[in-house]
Amino acid sequence: MVNVERISISFPKFLLKEIDEVVKRKGYSSRSELIRDAVRKYVLESNPLDRNEVVSGIIIVVYNPTKESLERMSKLYFEYNKVIKSLNQAYVTTSCGKNAKVEIFVVEGNSKDVSKFYDGISKIDGKIYDKVIIF
């Protein structure tokens, strides 16, 4: 590994037991590898959208596909098509037995535009879940 610095971290015993179980189940070579992976993911998911620079990322939204929500999503597609690089969508049944639409966007563009697009998505009526990951 290049330029690695050693630090000390304390965990409660119950959490350390959970960490050890994940290490085994997921095939990590060590606790350190799992913790590095988790920290990388956390940092990646914590990237801000207020930098006014070009960013790339993924936006996920799950919502109840009503006429109104589908029309609103359609408007957002056209308004922000310059930042949408790819879209994957599917209809699924939730664990509660309700129909839902899942949309996964790959986005790239000015962080302000990506942020406005995500803000629009996060306000969709009937939204069940949304997430943005910027890298």
Number of helices: 4
CATH class of the largest domain: Alpha Beta
- The total of beta strands comes to 4
User: Which consecutive residue ranges, at least 5 long each, have pLDDT under 50?
Assistant: none
How much is the radius of gyration in Å? 19 Å
| Beta-strand fraction estimate | 25-35%
What structural category arises from helix and sheet content? alpha+beta
Give the number of domains.
Answer: 2
Q: Describe the global form.
A: globular
N-end to C-end Cα span: 22 Å
The CATH homologous superfamily of the largest domain is named: ACT-like. Chain A, domain 2
- Strand arrangement, major sheet: 2-3-1-4
CATH topology of the largest domain: Alpha-Beta Plaits
| Biggest β-sheet description | 4 strands, antiparallel
Overall mean pLDDT score? 91
Folded structure, characterized:
The protein is α+β, with helices and mostly antiparallel strands and 135 residues long. It has two domains: 33 residues, Arc Repressor Mutant; 81 residues, 2-Layer Sandwich (Alpha-Beta Plaits), CATH 3.30.70.1150. 40% of the residues lie in helices and 30% in strands. The protein has a four-stranded antiparallel β-sheet with strand order 2-3-1-4, covered by helices on one side. The longest helix has 15 residues. The protein starts with 12 loop residues before the first helix and ends with a strand.
Secondary structure topology:
Elements (H helix, E strand, L loop, with lengths): L12 H14 L4 H15 L8 E10 L3 H13 L4 E10 L5 E12 H12 L4 E8 L1
Antiparallel strand pairs: 1-3, 1-4, 2-3
